[in-house]
Task: structure prediction
Amino acid sequence: MPNSPNAAAARETVISTRTGNISGSTPPKQKQKWRFWSGACFAIVLLAVFAQPLLALINYAAGSQLYSYILLIPFVSAYLLYLRRDQLPKNCVVDLPLAIVSLAAGLGVLGFTYWLDFAGRAPANNDRLGLLTLSFLCCLAAGGFFFFGRGWMRAAAFPVAYLIFMVPMPDAMAEALETASISASAEVANLLFHLSGVPFLRAGNIFQLPNITIEVAQECSGIRSSWVLFMTSILAANLFLKTRWRRFVLVAFVIPLAMLRNGFRILVIGLLCVNLGPQMIHSLIHRRGGPVFFMLSLIPFFLVLWWLRKGDAPRTRRPQ
Result:
């Protein structure tokens, strides 16, 4: 009995489907897996190449009061990527120009750092680690543009950009912030002492109280807690606020909040010395009280965040 036209067409469809699977292009899922594992291998190789400066950065951050937060930054960025996993595009297109630019920037910073060493003008350890870490991040971004493309990097822009806080501040920047923080804290403390009614005399950053003289020194700058609060505000603004101006307000609010916290700490220590005795200058509230005042500063910070978030909520139309 001859084969029917329908049966012949079905056989042709099966044969064409099989040949299509053999000779056709790679399925999208396989491409996605290939890109993921290729990118992972690139990251592993990059970590191996920069193993020495990264290990030096870890040891430096672990022993530093100012830069201990660096140890948490990669985990924060990884968690942010995990939260955005459904927003990351599945179809990736290689962005070769941006990959080349990022790689050139990373290799340029790396070459400049080692040229300084060779020329006998090696920077301080803090600045050298900052340059090497910046070089690593530029090369990592180059891998992102090459293996995942511009669309993926745009969707992951904030988690990737947040890695910049792995770079230690240059010494000149840290000293400038510290000097500004000391001056601002002294001004706020001066205002608070006036409001408290305690008699005092001021000469620059030195306050003469009834039974003790207090100087707003380097230890009173609060630069570490202020910098951590600044990073927290950027993170919270991105996670909980949608409007740009509200994000800007939250981040900008950190500046007066940091000055007020430092001035309030000076006021508390001064009042304790006046009322309980000058020995309070050596108490734990002075030597180890930074985290306590940092936690207190989070109260107005979260209140402002709550207020901004409340106004940022989408408005629902009332039924006509």
Notes: Residues 244-276 form the longest helix (33 residues). Residues 7-24, 316-320 have pLDDT under 50 and may be disordered. The radius of gyration is 28 Å. Residues 35 and 147 are 6 Å apart (CA to CA).
